[in-house]
From TrEMBL:
A GO molecular function held by the record: ATP binding
Origin species: Alicyclobacillus fastidiosus
Domain ABC transporter: from-to ranges: 14-247
This protein's name: Metal ABC transporter ATP-binding protein
UniProt-listed InterPro entries: AAA+_ATPase (IPR003593), ABC_transporter-like_ATP-bd (IPR003439), ABC_transporter-like_CS (IPR017871), Metal_Ion_Import_ABC (IPR050153), P-loop_NTPase (IPR027417)
Pfam family, one: ABC_tran
Taxonomic placement: Bacteria, Bacillati, Bacillota, Bacilli, Bacillales
Keywords: ATP-binding, Nucleotide-binding, Transport
UniProt keyword annotation of Nucleotide-binding present: yes
Amino acid sequence: MMQMKEEKTGDDVLSLKGIQVRFDDRLVLQNIQFSIRPGEFVGLIGPNGAGKTTLLRVILGLLAPNNGTVTVAGQPVKHGNPLVGYVPQKIHLDSDTPLRARDLVALGLDGHRWGLPLPSRSRRQKVDEVLRAVDALGFADSPVGRLSGGEQQRLLIAQALLTQPKVLLLDEPLSNLDIRSAHEVVRLVARIARSQGIAVLLVAHDMNPLLDVMDKVVYLAAGNSAIGTIEEVIQNDVLSRLYGYDVEVLRVRGRVLVVGGSNDTTTDLLQPTHHSNLRRLEESD
Ligand SMILES: Nc1ncnc2c1ncn2[C@@H]1O[C@H](COP(=O)(O)OP(=O)(O)OP(=O)(O)O)[C@@H](O)[C@H]1O
């Protein structure tokens, strides 16, 4: 674990210390240590298999680490903690489902943690409140299946906000979105983080849509992590130490690529597929 700067821990809302996770005899996470303060937007970046989802499962209390501790608002994590909101990657529903947008969001109220169902007026108020927070009141009564990927993603964020979390975890929320929708979702999450003082940990393969909003980045590779600002972490020497071999950070027209390999097999280490990223970059500009 590389800690890029001394952290003050007093105000932290999420704190991980010495997290180690082993599956059978394979060490997936070695010594993960970082903390996040209220209102901070942190990107959790890393290549396939680096352990990003595993780390989210630890924070959600779904997986006990072999070593280390996680606290949310000073308390050890437990599964179902309303202070931790979770936004999955996408909605898994048939496109012709009759469920309306507001019904999908309201499902978040029916979790066991809420005990008896709320009276319908206060249910509606709570749902409207979170729909407003994600700018979704305009399509609140539309069938979910007819909405765009970006609109559906906003509903999942609304659902996660229902329990008034202090920490919001998002697992690759941008992976199914086009560039414009991805930017919209990122800006929305950043606005919510700042206005409501919620600490955000957002998992992404591509850090580029996050460059303008990230306060810090947690970069995972080969079971290790580096934490700090983008300027501190996204550097040749820091990432080469993490990966355990030479990688290079390319900054092209405001975008960042982390590449590795010999000249003729250079690949963007953060892309799930092994296309020529440089060509992809040229084409997308
Ligand atoms: N329950 C499990 N049992 C055994 N191995 C597991 C288990 N869960 C995850 N792994 C392994 O741990 C490693 C990290 O997986 P994880 O899904 O956390 O990575 P990731 O960074 O989220 O990857 P991706 O970006 O591809 O989603 C992988 O090699 C995976 O196969």
